[in-house]
C-alpha cells in the first residue's frame, strides 16, 4: 500500500468517524521520536525481501502496547515532514550538523507511516513545520475545547507545553512527566523552560545559546531575573565578569535561540481536532501488513487475542465494525481469562504469598528436594545499578510458585490506599530474606533458572549473593533460534506454551495512574510476579531438552551460559570518564566544524545550509553542474555518503569537505556531547548495557551508550578514547586479537599458503601480495601491500569489484582482475565460499566452527541484488560468528585466571576483538600476560591465535 493510498483510506475512514466528545482526553504521539528510539533499540532485522524493518517492528510493538494500555478514544501520531522548516530561515545552521539517517533506517520511514495507517490512526505531518509545532497547536486547541492532553514522548523540547491539563508520558519508561519532573530536569517550571534553553543552547539541534552557560547556570539566572529579556536588560549587574560579558556579547544570539526553541502553537492543522479519533482497524488488513513485514510473533499475538474475543472465525478477521452499530465502550467484553494450559496439558496454578521466614523455609526445602528453582526479581526501575529490590518470586515445579514482597509500601488502587492507615503490608525485611536465600542461591546442587538473568544477577550481587549455577531461558532460546525470532518471555510463552502473560500495565497502570511495583497491591503483585517465575520454569522444561536433540549443548554450555555473570560484572563496574576532556573535545570539534563549514561556503557559489541535503544537492548538481546528480521520489537530489565519496574521488573538493563536516558532526553529537550526559553521578563512570541475545552472529552488542562503535582508525576517534581513563593508582589494559578474522578465513577455508604465512609469523598482507602478484617479499612496495590488504579484509565481507575499485581509486575492471587473481591463487577460498552459499540456501543458516547457527534471511531471493546481499552475509557470518564465539570463551575464562594469579584486574568492556581492563599499576604487566595466555588458548585452530596487549592511563594510550 502506498502512502497516498493509505492516506486516502484513512481520510475516508475519518470522514465516517464518530466525533469525539467534549472533555475526552487527547493523546498526541511523537511519531518521529518513536522512530529513532525503535531503530536504536533493536538490532538490524530484515523482512523476507531484504528490506530492513527493525524500526518498523519496534514502532509497531510500541504502538500496540500504547493502544492496549491507554484504551484511548482520541489519538494522533505526528511526524516531522521532509525538508526545511521556518527555523532554518531564522538560523540557517539550525540542525545543520545532524548527520543523515542511517541507510538501514531510510526505507523504514514510509513503512512506519504505513503501519500507522494500518492501525487506522490519524497520521499527521505539515511541511515547513516540525512535529513538535503540530503537537503544540493541537494541545492548545484541545485545551481551548476543555479537553485534557497527554503528549506521548520524552522529548525535552516538548516539556515547555506541560501545564494545566497538559502532561507528557514516556512510554518506554512507563513514566508520566508533569511540572515536577520538568522542574527537576530544567530547574524551572515549564513556562520558563524556553528561556533556559535559549541560554543553554542545544548542541544536538545546533541551537547556539550563550557560550559557557549550561542548563544549571541558566536556571539560576532565570530564577533570579524572572525571564530572558529581563536578564539581558540587566546583564550589566552580573557579578562574574566573564559571564557578564558573554551575556552582553551574545544577547542577540540568545534571542535567536529563544525563537528556535519556542514551539509554534498556531500552525495550520492538517485535520480538524474532532477527527483525531481511534477507529477499530480492518483486522485482516492489519494482519496482512504485519505478516508482509515478517512479524510472526506480533501476528500470532494479535490473532490469539482476536480469536479469544471472537473477532476471528476460521482464520479470517472481519472488517472493522460500523461505528453507528458498534457497542459503546462501557459495553465491551471483559478481558479474556488467561489459561495456564501448555502443550503438555492443563497446569493448575498454585501461587502463594510468602510473608514470613517460616513460610520461606518451606520453599527453600522444596528447592533442595527438586534441585530446581526458578527465580525472578521485581524492582522499582530497570536500571540494575540503582533499582530497589521490591520482591522475589520463586517456582519449584510448573504451576507452583510464590512471591516474597520485600519493599512494598502502602498500595495504590485507583488512587486509594488499600491498607488500613496507609501502613505497608507485612513482609520479610530484605536483609533477612537474602540471608535466608543465600545458601540455596549459591548451592551448587540446586540449579537456578531465570530469564535474562543478567539483570537479576546484578541485583543479587549488590547484596553479596553470587547466584550459581544458573540456566537462562532467554539464552537457551537464542542458541536454538538465533536471530530467527524474538526471545522475550511474553513472546516465548505465547509461542511455546500457548499462554498470554499478564501485561505489566495491568498491575502498574499507565499514564497519570501509573505506579511503580512497590505500590502494587499484594494480590496483583502475587499473580504477576509468581507467573513470571512459573512461566520461566515451564519455558525451561520446553527448551532445555532441545539443546541435546538439536546438538546445541556445546554452544550453550561452553559459550553463552558461562558469560552471564561475567557480563553482569562488567556492566556493574563501568568505565571511568574524564568529563573535562570530553568537554574540551566538544569545543574543539565545534571550532573545527565552524572552520569546515566556512570552507564549504567559500567553495559554494552562494550561501546554503550545509546540513540540508536538499540545498546541498542543488548547489552540487545545479549551481556547480557536477556530474551524477540523481533525483529521488521527493524530487530532491541524493547526497548520501556514496554520492559524495564518488564526487570527491573525481576531485570535487566541496564534496570532500562536506563529508569531513558530517563525520565530525556525528562524532560530536554521538560521543563528545552525549557521553557527558551518560556519566553516572554516583560513580563518575559510564555503565553500558550488553545485549546477549540480539545479533544474528552471536556478537554482544552495546547500548545506552553504545561503546562498541567509537572509531579507532581516525585521530578524532582516538582522542575520544583518551577520555576513558583509569582510576588513580591504576592503568588501563587493552588486549585484542591480531587479525582474528583473517586467521579464521585461512583456517575455515583451509588455505594452505595463508596458514603457512601465519605459522611463519609473516606480514600477512605482504605475504598475500607476494602470492597473488608474484612479487618477492624483499621487493614489496607499500602500494602493492595496500591493495592486498584491501582485498584481504574486503573478501571477508564479499567486496565487489566496484567497491574495491572505489576504495583503491582504480577502475572496477582492474579491481575485478585483482579479485579474480586472488581467488585463483587461493582456490580453496573460492571452493569454500561456493559451498557455504549452497549450505545457506539449503538450510537457511550457516554454522560457526563451534556449531552456532547464524540465520541468513533472503538467501533464496529472486531479486539478484537482495540475494547477493544475503550471500555476502552467508560468507561473513561464520567468520564473524566464530570470532565472537572465541572471544566469549576467552571472556568466561579470564576472571578465574586473573583471580588464580592474584590479580585485582577488573574487566570493563568488550569491543568485538578487544577486552579492556582496569588494573592496579604494579600488576599491569602480569595481568597482560595472563589475559594474553587465556585469549590465545581460547580455541585450537590450524593457525595460531595471537593477542596483543597495551597499557596506558587512557584507553587511547592503551590501544
UniProtKB/TrEMBL annotation:
It is an enzyme of class 2 (transferase). SMART domains: 35EXOc, 53EXOc, HhH2, POLAc. It catalyses: DNA(n) + a 2'-deoxyribonucleoside 5'-triphosphate = DNA(n+1) + diphosphate. Residues 313-342 are annotated as: Disordered. Residues 320-338 have a biased composition (Pro residues). The keyword Hydrolase applies. It comes from the Bacteria. InterPro entries: 3'-5'_exonuclease_dom, 5-3_exonucl_a-hlix_arch_N, 5-3_exonuclease, 5-3_exonuclease_C_sf, DNA-dir_DNA_pol_A_CS, DNA-dir_DNA_pol_A_palm_dom, DNA/RNA_pol_sf, DNA_polI_H3TH. Its EC number is 2.7.7.7. Residues 717-923 form the DNA-directed DNA polymerase family A palm domain. Residues 22-279 form the 5'-3' exonuclease domain. GO terms for molecular function: DNA-directed DNA polymerase activity. Residues 351-548 form the 3'-5' exonuclease domain. Keywords: DNA damage, DNA repair, DNA replication, DNA-binding, DNA-directed DNA polymerase, Exonuclease, Hydrolase, Nuclease, Nucleotidyltransferase, Transferase. Belongs to the DNA polymerase type-A family. In addition to polymerase activity, this DNA polymerase exhibits 3'-5' and 5'-3' exonuclease activity. Single-chain monomer with multiple functions. This is DNA polymerase I. It comes from Azospirillum oleiclasticum. The gene is polA.
